[in-house]
Amino acid sequence: MTERTEHGGASRAEHADLLDFPGAAQLITAGDVPPPRPGAVAAAQAAVAFAAQEARETRETRETRERTRSVPRRRRLLVATAAVAAIAAGAVAYPVLDLGGKPAATASASAGRFLDDMAGVAAEAPASDAQYWKVRVETDNQDDGKRTFTTYYARSGGPGEVKKWPVGEEWLTWPQLDELPTDEKALAALFPKDAESRSEQILIMLEDSPASPRLRAALFRILADTPGIELIGEVKDSKGRPGVAVEMTREARYSTGPGEDVTYWTKDRYVVDPGTGLLLENTHRIRGQSTPADRYTWLEVGPADKPTGKSANKSADKKR
């Protein structure tokens, strides 16, 4: 009979087999380690998804693999080792892994994991009962060049600007945002059904709205389930701040005359701070051009006591 542990667990032989990878001994003797920083587990899940993907391979692929058995085994070992190391170190890493030309997980699936992870980060942010919301943003576009705006939004009345954010066919004020459901299914039903319009409205709200932590978390979860968003990975924004980028490719058209439409493709990239869930930057680029047509960099977004100075009523709303 195979020897079992006194609690009915796996045998010593099974334990030895499970822990047969580089670094296992160090993990066993390491003792307690701090919990991973936001995103470490999601990154590890994206990495080990490669092994799960292989289980769905076709018979022809499996036969090919048998002829080169040593190569896939080494790839699986590298992925497993990297995943364990990421969790043990508590590192934040969101790469779109490419192992011998074969991704560990699709970019869209990895984006979903990252955005779902950001929902957890957003939910843990402190709530605010401030009467004003300060937004300082730097814009840069081909028409106006680089400019910086500071805007104070008012919760209700008083000095400052009352702004509205799109939700479906409605434009909602700050107090109305507080009345939105925070259940993701109920909230998603209020937004457009097509993925492009839905993601656009949600991102507008995530950019600078005073949405509560629970509402922001629900918005991130809806984005996580929205197709067409790809994970780019760790980047730095134009100010050198580290973040994680996701990107959407969209089809756009403009008319040059009656019956004469020109179609082109654009790429919208959003850089997110994985520690706070705040959006750092958005760049709008026409595919094939090296310079972004528009850039919005959020320098400060958060609660404020009251508007001060001439900047209280300046706005940098996007033209959409």
TrEMBL record:
Keyword Membrane assigned: yes
Q: Where is this region: Disordered?
A: 300-320
Keywords, A to Z? Membrane, Transmembrane, Transmembrane helix
Q: Which residues cross the membrane?
A: 77-97
In its UniProt entry, what is this protein called? Answer: CU044_5270 family protein
Q: Which organism is it from?
A: Streptomyces anatolicus
